[in-house]
Amino acid sequence: MKKQIDAFAQLLIDPKSFFKNDLETNDKNLFAIAMVVFCIGYGIDRMDRQLVKLDLRGTLDEFGFFNTWIGYWSISIIGGAIGGYILYLIGGWFYHVRVKWSKGKGDLDHSRRLYLFSNFYLYLSIALVSVCATLILSRPYDPYAEFSVFDGITGIVVILAIFYTIYISFSGVMSTTEAERTRAVIWFIVLPAFFYIVSFSALIALLAFEWF
């Protein structure tokens, strides 16, 4: 286990070295840990989005089980196991397409591994935030709760994780695929950052409209 902890620490501190040394490793435990975190984090993210959608539609009370911690974690884990693996396949394929558009080298499996490990700390932060919320809050989503310090801190953590994920991804592409830097900047920094900014802006606008 120490070997895997050291590898993930290197991914956080020095992603270029991780991708050069550990990306193609045959360490099944390293890959399994990354996949579990990826799937659970994805399931939680989709569940959070679904609760917001139900609230905006005024149907949250009709799906009360979703808004209990037992329901929240059950659906997140089961749904994440299925949806996360599908995302790994499809998202990894599109990641490979972006590598090729950037004139990079490598096969589809290599790109999927880049995609998986690049997103590790984003989905780990999402999962840890939900674990903390489970210990602190009475239910996963409270539409009447006022904005709290916990909301602010966790929001900052996730936002930082998102943009650090972009950096990790770019580092992996540049250190292992021989991609053209200008093209890689566009496909792996500019466009992902633009996508997240637009997504956050749309979500804030929807919530603001609902509140006011």
Question: What this model shows, in words?
Answer:
The protein has 212 residues and is mostly helical. It has one domain (2-211). The chain is 80% helix and 0% strand. It contains 8 helices and no strands. It has helices at 2-13, 15-21, 28-57, 69-101, 108-118, 120-136, 149-176, 181-211. α3 packs across α4, α3 packs across α6 (120-136) and α6 packs antiparallel against α7. 29% of the residues are buried. The model has no long low-confidence stretch (mean pLDDT 92).
Write the layout of secondary structure elements.
Layout: H1 2-13, H2 15-21, H3 28-57, H4 69-101, H5 108-118, H6 120-136, H7 149-176, H8 181-211
Pfam families: Yip1
GO cellular component, one term: membrane
Subcellular location: Membrane
List keywords for this structure.
212 residues; mainly alpha; 8 helices; 80% helix; globular
In short:
The chain has 212 residues and is an all-alpha fold. 80% of the residues lie in helices and 0% in strands. The protein is globular and about 50 Å long.
Poorly predicted ranges (pLDDT <50, ≥5 residues)? none
Mean pLDDT: 92
Strand content: under 5%
Number of domains: 1
Fraction of residues in helix? over 70%
Largest sheet at a glance?
Answer: none
Which structural category do the helix and sheet elements fall into? mainly alpha
Order of helices and strands: HHHHHHHH
Rounded to the nearest angstrom, the radius of gyration is 18 Å
What's the overall geometry? globular
Alpha carbon gap, first and last residue: 50 Å
Task: Give a count of the beta strands, DSSP E runs of length 2 or more.
Answer: 0
Q: What count of helical segments does DSSP give?
A: 8
Main location: membrane
Subcellular location: Membrane
Pfam families: Yip1
Transmembrane segments: 29-44, 70-95, 116-137, 149-173, 185-209
